[in-house]
Amino acid sequence: MNSIHPIAQTDETVTLSRADYEALLEALEDAQDIATILAVDDAVKRGEDEYLPGELVMRLIEGEHPVRVWREHRGLTAKALAEKAGVSAAYLSEIESCKKPGSLDAMAKIARALSVQVDDLLAWQRGEGE
């Protein structure tokens, strides 16, 4: 960023050109973005969060059910996830194929089995993954 040159200033105010003002706003936004990225990186290092590979993000954006995406990301078969979550394989199949939405209880069990937040699975139903 180039140096900022106030047009006028008092003890209480500083007057800037529009270009300098917009440059400051852009620098602030960049700094906030960097802080967010660093915070996420720290959370990942502590094991509190993780990144999804781009191809999986695209599958979610394209409308694939997040249970299937996360299950495959975790390297689980449908049968293994059903057993780990304590739901029937048939019910899990209906959830993944969008034939049934899945009860909140079932989605919570599946989320725990996948080590994700239940919101990561329910956002799809609210249309946030689209």
Structure write-up:
The chain is mostly helical and 130 residues long. It is 58% helix and 3% strand. The protein has seven helices and two strands, in the order ββααααααα. It has helices at residues 18-45, 54-61, 66-73, 78-85, 89-96, 104-114, 118-122, and strands at residues 8-9, 14-15. Strands 1-2 form a two-stranded antiparallel ribbon.
Residue windows where pLDDT falls under 50 for at least 5 positions: none
Radius of gyration: 23 Å
What is the share of helical residues? 55-70%
Q: Order of strands across the widest beta sheet?
A: 1-2
Could you tell me the strand content as a percent range? under 5%
Number of DSSP strand runs: 2
Tally of structural domains: 2
Shape: elongated
Which whole number gives the mean pLDDT?
A: 88
Q: Give the CATH architecture of the largest domain.
A: Orthogonal Bundle
For this structure, what is the CATH homologous superfamily of the largest domain? lambda repressor-like DNA-binding domains
What CATH calls the topology of the largest domain is 434 Repressor (Amino-terminal Domain)
Distance between the termini: 36 Å
Class by SSE composition: mainly alpha
Task: Sum this structure up briefly.
This protein has 130 residues and is mostly helical. The chain has helices at 18-45, 54-61, 66-73, 78-85, 89-96, 104-114, 118-122, and strands at 8-9, 14-15. Strands 1-2 form a two-stranded antiparallel ribbon.
